[in-house]
Amino acid sequence: MKRSERLVDMVKYLLARPHTLIALPFFAERYDAAKSSISEDLAILKQTLASNQDGILETVAGAAGGVRYIPFIGKNYAREYLTELADRIEEPDRILPGNFVYLSDILGSPQDLRRIGQLIATKYAYSNVDYVMTVETKGIAIAQAVSRFLNVPFVLVRRRPKITEGATISVNYVASSSDRVEKMELAKRSLPSDSNVLIVDDFMKGGGTLTGMEELVNEFDCHVVGMSVLCETKYASQKVVDDYQSLIKITEVDRNKKLIKVEPGNFLEQTDFDRF
Amino acid sequence: MKRSERLVDMVKYLLARPHTLIALPFFAERYDAAKSSISEDLAILKQTLASNQDGILETVAGAAGGVRYIPFIGKNYAREYLTELADRIEEPDRILPGNFVYLSDILGSPQDLRRIGQLIATKYAYSNVDYVMTVETKGIAIAQAVSRFLNVPFVLVRRRPKITEGATISVNYVASSSDRVEKMELAKRSLPSDSNVLIVDDFMKGGGTLTGMEELVNEFDCHVVGMSVLCETKYASQKVVDDYQSLIKITEVDRNKKLIKVEPGNFLEQTDFDRF
């Protein structure tokens, strides 16, 4: 097999398995090639990815070594995308009665979900995330997108009891949108204790739902490594969480005036792009 | 830029944008290379993908021509994966009270969702799908996985009214699991009329939910191009749909006897792998 053919297959293989250590002998056997040739292939791959600010190929030395593909997006590209996304959300047609904002098109767009997943996975690339957690329903798209690029499972917290998940642990929380005490629960078998959990959601107002998930993580004897939301909105009272990132921030919305103002959230400042 | 570097970038670019026509001049400009060199690159790419039964690079000739990456999985690989998946589901621990089966781990696994998405996208690669449709909650993971590989948006039917989606159209349906008449609805703006819709879901018993979605597609003046579910189970009465594919079939489940029998569903017979 020629180098060019090996490279094509290698990229495909690695992209489908981010954050996974692949031993050199695996590729040598797959392509029936010398380890020295494989090393040269990987050097080319590494350099090309690095020069495009579009993922890293990490080399792990030693007998148990190999390579690991880490998806990431550079800061300029991140800023460009979030600015463009904010512009798209800044359409008066999106304002629904009650000043809610229609985002379902973005939450169903594979190209947006790819970028959103890459962005959040960039921030948490070295946080040893074991599970991504979200709460039904719209958070699922975000969780699945991040899960793909961190290559770890996601778990789904339910707002209503389900009979198809077995025993659960539940917590109460105060929903910022209604100020009511509600209940959320997670299947016991879905999250092993001592896991590192990244919490994500589509929308955040006061942070009540995020706080509920934090509490649930504690009830499972796990650790919260971070919280990211696609979109936060201004909130009259004090938010109940402060350590979170938002990709997008809605600063003003008024259906009567057909006015909506949107800007990139605090994600750009809170992410250390220079590590890469 | 060297050929090897161009190839690495091209694969990455095309894999992120399946089913999208990319004009040759786009690549020529991106790499500052002659069109003849780009044509040679693409020929290498095409051949490597074809020999691995792992996607196709379609060439579209003419002035408006270019290349298009079509993800697909070969039949042997599909059979191997579905057999292995059936084995994993055949664990007595998965049987919940009421003979429900725990599948949440598979619906949250990025590697399973990648394969499930590729499989369903293989079957519908040439069906001109415009939208993937599913109903909350667990179907979302399947819809998003398929949406990624067909590179079309997915829309989410709700079982309960939501205030964050604007005007909706609703239908009634009879849920096979409860025999009760229920209601499902979809935001009007989420699905333009005359679209081709692929319906997917995680689980199917009698097919009542699928029928409800079919009706909803009709109410939107759209066309159903097919229906796929991850898992179907035996059902005492006649199923109300017959034109569907299931990846996995649960043929027996009995919590008292700790017995569960699972096999690949009708997907393999119903898919024409030889088109590729």
TrEMBL record, chains A, B:
Name the keywords, alphabetized. Answer: DNA-binding, Transcription, Transcription regulation
Record Gene3D superfamilies: 3.40.50.2020, Winged helix-like DNA-binding domain superfamily/Winged helix DNA-binding domain
Q: Any signal peptide, and if so, which residues?
A: none
**Ranges of residues in domain Bacterial purine repressor N-terminal:** 2-71
Which Gene Ontology BP terms does the record give? negative regulation of DNA-templated transcription; negative regulation of purine nucleobase metabolic process
Record-annotated Phosphoribosyltransferase domain positions: 106-250
MF annotations from Gene Ontology: DNA binding
**Can you state the subunit structure given in the record?**
Homodimer.
Family statement: Belongs to the purine/pyrimidine phosphoribosyltransferase family. PurR subfamily.
What is the official name of this protein in its record? Answer: Purine operon repressor
